[in-house]
Structure formats: structure tokens, C-alpha cells
């Protein structure tokens, strides 16, 4: 299995396709793994791209270390993969927490090193999820405390309830629950470490990425469903696109947080069109 070491931590990655093709690197959400992007990776592989994805530290097959579960380390680990594979002119696509990772990566590493061409934030957490004095529209701390209680109390059950409910919109009237999708979410989550998942809640909810977004100059596509029950569009995408210097917003009516899975037949061509534009 392919691993690299970032600050002494083993990070697992996938690298498929021609090494001389334009690379697309995918960054997964909490508490999942690079497997969450399999549909997109196969789609873009068939289109002739080089596709790369890694498991965030503490997630999937990467080392279950006790520390470093924050956006700075997430971005640095991603950069370690990029440098190891010598990815240039790359497109970085992040979902949810992975969108925060992309924003921090592009601002701190990708643009300064000249290795990034474009970025995509899908149902992403920036600029800030938590309600604060300066961010009164955010979600109250009690929401994230509930996530922490779920991870600490019965992570296995929580990792069934979240995908069976709000993550994919399966709790909406008339929705048909896809058990395979739910079980795959559970599988990915339970492969990772509880400490990483617990600490990661603070990372995705309390990291203010306003300055990251302001620093990004490459073309950036912001994609969000207006029925996202995990990362409300008003707290994220609508604010992010105003902070980006070269941002484009695409809103999907009725789409849930996990739209890259439930609506891949729409999301994938839209990603392709942006990358080729």
C-alpha cells in the first residue's frame, strides 16, 4: 500500500492514471476517507486525468496518531503528498471538511509553491461554521458538542444515524434510503480513529478561514446544495464566494450535503466543465 511520511506520520494515498496528465487531487470530508471520492476518481480517470486522493491523518488507512488534527496539519500533510508525487498544475477538490483543507492548502502551500491551477469547494465548511460574536449566523456550540458526545458515547451508532439521516437527505419526506451508501459511510468512518474524529470536530467547526479565502487567487468553484443540513449554505458558500477573488458559486436546488454521492451524475460533469474551462 502506498504511504508517505508527513512530519513522521504515515499518510495513505491513491495515485491513478497517466503521470504526465493534469492531476486532480481530492480531499475527503469528516469522518470518511479517500474512498468517498471513488466515483469521481473513476470518472476523471476515464477522461484522461491523473487522479490522487489521500486519507487524512487519523482517518482511513493513515496512522491513527493522537495529535495534529487541525487544518494546519491537514494542509501540510496534503502538501507532503503533492511534493512526493511532484504534482503540478493541479486541481484540488475538497468536500465538507476537505473543503477547509483545500482552502488552507491553496492559501498556505499550493499558491506559494506554484503547484495549483484551480480549486473546488463542495459543500465546504469555510469560512466558519461556529456561531461567534463576529459570526452570529453560525451554528451554536451545542450542535458540535452533540457531535462530540456521539463520537465519545457510541461512535458506531452515530456513524449509522448521520448517513441514514441528514447527511444524504434520507430523512426528507419521500426519500429512499440507500443502505449501501449508509453502510459505506459507516465502513469508512469506523476505519478511522476515534481521537482524530473527536478532535476533527473542533477543526471543522471552529477554524476561521476568512483569510485563507481572501488569499486565494486561482479560479475557485463553490458548489453547494440549498438543502444541506450539515453545512448550511447561508453560513458557508454564500459567504465564501464573496471572500474569494476569483470565485464562482453554483447552487443545487434541493441537494443534500453528500450530493457528490447522491447526485454524481450531475456533479461530475459540472466539475469537468469547470476544470476544462
TrEMBL record:
Region forming the signal peptide: none
Key words of the record: Oxidoreductase, Peroxidase
GO molecular function: peroxidase activity
Tree of life domain: Bacteria
One Pfam match: Abhydrolase_1
InterPro entries, per database record: AB_hydrolase, AB_hydrolase_1, AB_hydrolase_fold
Sequence ranges assigned to domain AB hydrolase-1 in this UniProt record: 23-260
Residue intervals passing through the bilayer: none
Keyword Chaperone appears in the UniProt entry: no
Family to which the UniProt record says this protein belongs: Belongs to the AB hydrolase superfamily. Bacterial non-heme haloperoxidase / perhydrolase family.
Protein name per UniProt: Non-heme chloroperoxidase
Amino acid at each position: 500500500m502506498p504511504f508517505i511520511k508527513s512530519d513522521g506520520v504515515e499518510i495513505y494515498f491513491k495515485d491513478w492514471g497517466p503521470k504526465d496528465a493534469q492531476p486532480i487531487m481530492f480531499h475527503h470530508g469528516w469522518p470518511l476517507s479517500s474512498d468517498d471520492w471513488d466515483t469521481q476518481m473513476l470518472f476523471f480517470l476515464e477522461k484522461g486525468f491523473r487522479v490522487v486522493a489521500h486519507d487524512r491523518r487519523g482517518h482511513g488507512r493513515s496512522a491513527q496518531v493522537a495529535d495534529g488534527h487541525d487544518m494546519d496539519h491537514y494542509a501540510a500533510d496534503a502538501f507532503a503528498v503533492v511534493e512526493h508525487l511532484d504534482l503540478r498544475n493541479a486541481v484540488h477538490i475538497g468536500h465538507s471538511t476537505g473543503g477547509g483543507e483545500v482552502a488552507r492548502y491553496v492559501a498556505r502551500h499550493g499558491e506559494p509553491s506554484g503547484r495549483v491551477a484551480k480549486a473546488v469547494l463542495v459543500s465546504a465548511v469555510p469560512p466558519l461554521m461556529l456561531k461567534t460574536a463576529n459570526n452570529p449566523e453560525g451554528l451554536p456550540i451545542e450542535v458540535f458538542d452533540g457531535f462530540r458526545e456521539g463520537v465519545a458515547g457510541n461512535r458506531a451508532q452515530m456513524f449509522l444515524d448521520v448517513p441514514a439521516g441528514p447527511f444524504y437527505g434520507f430523512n426528507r419526506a419521500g426519500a429512499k434510503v440507500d443502505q449501501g451508501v449508509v453502510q459505506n459511510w459507516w465502513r469508512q468512518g469506523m476505519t478511522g480513529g476515534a481521537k482524530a474524529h473527536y478532535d476533527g470536530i473542533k477543526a471543522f467547526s471552529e477554524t476561521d478561514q476568512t483569510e485563507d479565502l481572501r488569499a486565494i487567487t486561482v479560479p475557485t468553484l463553490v458548489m453547494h446544495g440549498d438543502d444541506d443540513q450539515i453545512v448550511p449554505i447561508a453560513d458557508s458558500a454564500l459567504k465564501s464566494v464573496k471572500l474569494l477573488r476569483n470565485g464562482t458559486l453554483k447552487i443545487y436546488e434541493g441537494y443534500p450535503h453528500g450530493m457528490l454521492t447522491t447526485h454524481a451524475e450531475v456533479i461530475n460533469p459540472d466539475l469537468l466543465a469547470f476544470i476544462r474551462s
